[in-house]
Amino acid sequence: MLLIGSRIQEYRKKAGLNQEEFAEKMGVSRQAVSKWERDKAYPDLDRLVCICEILDVQVGELIYGKGDEPEAPEEVSGDGTSANNAVHLKNLRGKGRLARLKILFCVMAAICVFCVIVVAVLFVRNEWISHSDKNGNVRVEKVYQQYTKADLAYLDDNGRKIMDTVWLDVPGVRDGDYIQLYTGVDGDGLFLNYKTSTIVAASFVMLVFIILLILIGLEIRRMKKEDTLQIIFEDKTADEKM
Predict the structure, then answer these.
(1) How many CA within 13 A on the CB side of residue 183?
(2) Is residue 152 a contact partner of residue 191, using CB atoms and an 8 Å limit?
(3) Which domains does the chain have, with CATH numbers?
(4) How many CB atoms lie within 10 A of CB 82?
(5) Fewer CB atoms inside 10 Å of the end CB: C or N, the chain?
């Protein structure tokens, strides 16, 4: 990780600017400058270039420190692999990790969508208030798996058989059993008294996956910023050699 906060602070003080004056020149808030200097956040590419112009410092010097800029030796003893090749291999490994994180992000996003749908169904189907005094025995046509969904059948006010698929938290239920559920005011829907633990557990799992998704997204963003800083430095180094 590139920690440039202390160097931003050092060059800002050398330029005789306090945080408010520097923030005004940058067009940002003083809190943003404070976060940069404490390495709580990174300036984006445009602001990084602007910082170098205002503080009159080279990009490589700001990123790596004066006299600490990495050199690119042309030869490495041993198997004959050059240092540049080693750097490229390191970059490839970093890109591979970034690609894996992106795949993981997509998988986690799909899981989060599924969890949100499940929780939404539980909240919609739950008997929060009395939809009616109507309740009766509903036939379990097919159980897909315990504590998951099942096909239920019941008769509406006109005597028509209605099939509906719902999520159950009734242990031990089998095909052909009858369970007591609310069928709504017009008999057009099923409402269940889910256990509090079922709703809480599903909501907790959803929040965990959402938090993991956010953390993966932040890590991907951080890696992209580091790649951007590395590209700037490499371009600067190449220009200086030319």
Answers:
(1) 21
(2) no
(3) 5-69 (1.10.260.40), 127-193 (2.40.50)
(4) 13
(5) C
